[in-house]
User: Which sequence fits this backbone?
């Protein structure tokens, strides 16, 4: 079965894109991606590719396009670069590659996460579809990334089914 097809009723193929200058330069470990990969595997989902790029819109866009087309994953989760800093450009880069935006997912993430961490309201993450791939921006902090993922993970199998 190719990477782009479900191997079970709720199995999903995933690409993780970390947006971090330090991780991309191998100056820091990718703790958020490691924790997220474990959570995905516990659900029986397959991480087909993990990649890190600096916080640069062109590189983020190129990586997203590659993950959606070349690797044919059903879900791309980006980590990091969703805040208010000058280098936080993942939402802008993501919007440029989306064919259809899906505002409900980031709204739900923020809503659920704000209950424990009011600063979640400052996240600018977006979500949407390119071709047959769902793309969702998550924060880069390991704990926030996992909480954000778990806030919407139950919706991913149905969304992937509708897209595919």
Assistant:
């Amino acid at each position: 079965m190719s990477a782009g097809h479900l191997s079970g009723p709720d199995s999903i193929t995933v690409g993780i894109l970390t947006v971090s200058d330090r991780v991309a330069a191998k100056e820091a470990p990718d703790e958020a991606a490691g924790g997220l990969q474990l959570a995905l595997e516990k659900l029986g989902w397959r991480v087909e590719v993990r990649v890190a790029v600096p916080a640069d819109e062109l590189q983020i866009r190129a990586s997203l396009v590659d993950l959606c087309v070349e690797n044919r994953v059903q879900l791309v989760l980006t980590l990091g670069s969703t805040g208010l800093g000058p280098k936080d450009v993942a939402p802008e880069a993501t919007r440029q590659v989306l064919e259809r935006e899906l505002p409900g997912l980031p709204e739900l993430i923020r809503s659920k996460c704000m209950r424990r961490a009011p600063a979640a309201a400052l996240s600018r993450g977006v979500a949407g579809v390119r071709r047959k791939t769902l793309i969702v921006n998550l924060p880069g902090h390991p704990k926030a990334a996992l909480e954000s993922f778990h806030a919407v993970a139950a919706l991913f199998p149905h969304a992937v089914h509708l897209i595919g």
Observations:
- DSSP finds seven helices and six strands in the chain.
- Residues 19 and 156 are 22 Å apart (CA to CA).
- The chain has one domain: 13-163.
